[in-house]
Amino acid sequence: MTVLSNLAPIPELYVSYDSAEKLKVEAGNFKSHDLTPRQICDLELLMNGGFSPLKGFLSEEDYNGVVENMRLADGSLFPMPITLDVSEKFADTIEIGEDIALRDQEGVILATMTVTDKWVPNKSNEAEKVFGADDDAHPAVYYLHNQAGKVYLGGPVTGIQQPIHYDFRARRDTPNELRAYFRKLGWRRIVAFQTRNPLHRAHQELTFRAAKEAQANLLIHPVVGMTKPGDVDHFTRVRCYEAVLDKYPGSTTTMSLLPLAMRMAGPREAVWHGIIRKNYGCTHFIVGRDHAGPGKNSAGEDFYGPYDAQDLFREHQEEIGIEMVDFKHMVYVQERAQYEPNDEIADKDDVTILNISGTELRRRLSEGLEIPEWFSFPEVVAELRKTKPPRSQQGFTVFFTGFSGSGKSTIANALMVKLMEMGGRPVTLLDGDIVRKNLSSELGFSKEHRDLNIRRIGYVASEITKNGGIAICAPIAPYSATRRAVREDIEQYGAFVEVHVATSIEECERRDRKGLYKLAREGKIKEFTGISDPYDVPEHPELRLDTENVDVDNCAHQVILKLESMGLIAAI
Ligand code: PPS
């Protein structure tokens, strides 16, 4: 197929400046929905034409078509349900035909929507059909079941203003801005490269080759909306991309940032990415091995086959009007000191092929090990090292859990002193009793209040961890689901070391240091953990401490040894 770009402007959903000002005032009286970060990304691409032909959040009929066979009710191809999920409580207040205001997280009205549809989706069916499995290990399925509201609202959107971005403004373009840029430069064949990772030499080589093969100019089009949890943050990535841009021959290549919220939907996602790039004026699109793959499912297997995305894209490229350039797996051939496509190396047995996987790269970064020049550019490695110092310099949280009187506070204090003696990072102790005097002074011991207490401790610990400090927490934290949630909050920024202080309830009651067990037995304290309220024993803590036959100093020392074995403190 031969595609030449049609760079005429595409329709946007914005009203004119004057009308926007009026509409904004009017919309102040509408019921309003505060958009989630993902919905803000979706809205931006709806309004600027990136999701063309969509004119708003999907109606029920369009949704059913997209879920079942990747088509809107009018037959146009669209593989991803772009839906406005809301709470039941909000949905109950909305009448069909009503206009609502869509606000960002600070309350700024970005758009209005006329609600034409309101329905409760079958989320399991959506998960099966769109993502291939109803399995929470898939990040978009997890989102669907655990974060998205129960009800979907659909209807056409009227754009008032773009979401506000304060970062990298000069690098952000709407489809029409990019089309105008291509027109101005006389670019008629443009190959887009989608990425959510830093670029290393192999990527630079493959994108360069793809552009040569397609006889096209190159658009590096990284996603800066939402990517897979755990990815390198986009601030770091953009600084890395800027360093790599200099490595391409002058004026052949440009970079623009795409505010997309990825779903990691593999084959469907690839087709969606193609439609978006077509809207941005591109003629070619690079599709890799395992494009937008979400990793392993809960049975430890890949969600999609490595070439499923390429196969589905090939089927639809004519209709989208964008040609696929399939990704070459580039490897480094040491003897020839260059990158070559793996499947084109005829003398494989006679040469040394070098490759560093993503996992190996992360290991080297976290342990402060060398990253060779053949693998990446020094500027990129320097940026990555700034964001991800070795583990022994990163922040982390030690989270003690156990019954009242189990010895958590005493061991936590001893640990704090030992860590302060070592120096290097600030140490903060968030002890159960102290937190309840300060941060959570108004809370009691109902399940709801305990959860709130632990989530607050987790929030403070995650901030400390993010900023390179050591947080030591010592609450009872009786419920495993809450501990898991706190672990997830903290692991975005650093290690979470759960230590179960496994003193038995009998021993705690025998010690009864504060006299509380006696009162609990007498019914004078209600909902007392271990007596009249449950404690979920941690199944897989990083460390379990037996305090009944071991002294405090030794317990704290066991924690230090654990931290050392995890690389969190330098060897002692
Ligand atoms: S929780 O469940 O994690 O929110 O509890 P936490 O904040 O760690 O509890 C701190 C101390 O409160 C005392 N206390 C009780 N504990 C358990 N159940 C009930 N009903 C209760 N009422 C008061 C108890 O002494 C806890 O102190 P520690 O330091 O654990 O001995």
Word description of this protein:
This is Adenylyl-sulfate kinase. It is an enzyme of class 2 (transferase). The chain is built from 20 helices and 20 strands. With 572 residues, it is an alpha/beta fold. The strands form 4 sheets. Strands 1, 2, 3, 4, 5, 6 and 7 form a 7-stranded mixed β-sheet that branches. It has a 5-stranded parallel β-sheet with strand order 10-9-8-11-12, with helices on both faces. A hairpin with a 4-residue loop joins strand 13 and strand 14 (338-341). The chain is globular, with a radius of gyration of 27 Å. The model has no long low-confidence stretch (mean pLDDT 95). Bound molecules: 3'-phosphate-adenosine-5'-phosphate sulfate. 3'-phosphate-adenosine-5'-phosphate sulfate binds at residues 404-405, 409, 432-433, 436, 445, 450, 453-454, 475-478, 514, 516, 525, 527-529, 533.
Provide a short characterization of the protein structure.
One of its GO terms (biological process) is sulfate assimilation via adenylyl sulfate reduction. The chain has 572 residues and is α/β, with parallel strands linked by helices.
Tell me the layout of helices and strands.
Layout: H1 17-27, E1 31-34, H2 37-47, E2 56-57, H3 60-69, E3 84-86, H4 88-92, E4 99-103, E5 109-114, E6 117-119, H5 123-131, H6 139-146, E7 151-159, H7 175-185, E8 190-195, H8 201-213, E9 217-222, H9 234-245, E10 253-255, H10 266-279, E11 284-287, H11 308-320, E12 323-326, E13 330-333, E14 338-341, E15 353-354, H12 358-367, H13 378-387, E16 396-401, H14 408-422, E17 427-431, H15 432-437, H16 447-466, E18 470-474, H17 480-491, E19 495-501, H18 505-511, H19 516-521, E20 543-545, H20 552-565
Parallel strand pairs: 1-4, 8-9, 8-11, 9-10, 11-12, 16-18, 16-19, 17-18, 19-20
Antiparallel strand pairs: 2-7, 3-7, 4-5, 5-7, 6-7, 13-14, 13-15
